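Worked problem 6 (solution included).
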Amino acid sequence: MPMIQILQIAEQHTGPLKPLDISEGILLFLEAKKAEGCSEGTLKSWRRDLKRISGKFRGQVHELRTDEINKWALALPLAPKSQRHTLGTGGTWWIWMDDLGYSVGPKNPFKKCQRIKSPRKPVVILTVTQARAVINAAVKDPYLAAVVVLVMFCGLRTEEAQKMVWDWIHL
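Solution. The predicted structure is:
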């Protein structure tokens, strides 16, 4: 390799110049996070997102480029929230490697990627007639009536109202 290329590569790197293969970096990250005691759910989520990244990109971490990641991420057949989560995981992974002094390049390539925005769902509000019909239907079952009242008049989510116990209620 010519000296000029070596100098160009060295200028891109920070830390003690430890180049790292993408797949190796992912394994090290997941092992470290498991050793730190991260939950199995968190590890599973990171594993899934990083598998997407390693499935597309090969080579060394410092070779990752924002424009390539952005093009790939926008083409992923994922919901907007999943796409943002994958890019966020990639950014977390990159920062972790940078903090340990691996040669990852001067800037986080995941940070400036375009995130797909989720379309806002319209808020649906019941009319008085619809609310009356729901309450009348729920009166037949006291448990269901309690859940309906909590949801409609206290702003609780259905799952929250279903899990409530009397000890939580202070009249």
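Discussion: The first helix runs from residue 3 to 12.
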